[in-house]
Amino acid sequence: MRNEKGFVYPVSLCMVVFFSMFLLIAIEQNMVEKRFYRQTETILVGEYYMLSALKELEEKLKNDESFSSGRIQYSRGEVLFQRKVLSGRIDEYTFTLKLETNEQWIAVTHYDKDEKKMVRWVEKN
To answer: What is the pLDDT, as a whole number, of residue 116?
Structure first.
């Protein structure tokens, strides 16, 4: 006698569907993580470039160099800065970071000429 109740084919089909769904979920999770890591890397690079530009400008200002505007080039972007005189003691510098990913960040800092250091930092994003 033949047993034609059909147990193996439905179970095999369910297992294939289950593993296919599991594989698709794993692939989607991997894509989301890659996107997250790229965004995190962009943020870290932007913060590093802003801090580097700030330190570089502060060092030049300590050596009594005066800038009304300027540009600092980096491998993955550039930082533009402009000076605005607020008083005889305080200058305001506006930093604009443009990355190669077309992202733009703006920050404002105040430089105290008597203390020869940056005294305030505000990001406008």
So the answer is: 87
Strand order in the sheet with 90-99: 69-74, 77-85, 90-99, 104-112, 117-123
Q: What is the mean pLDDT of residues 8-16?
A: 90
The Cα–Cα gap between 80 and 120 comes to 18
Among 57, 35, 36, smallest CA distance to 107 is for 57
Length of the chain: 125
Q: Is the pLDDT of residue 97 over 60?
A: yes
Give the start-to-end residue ranges of the domains of the chain.
Answer: 8-123
Residue 124, token pair as written in the block: 């406008």
pTM of the predicted model as reported, rounded to 2 decimal places: 0.78
Chain-centre distance of CA 83, in angstroms?
Answer: 25
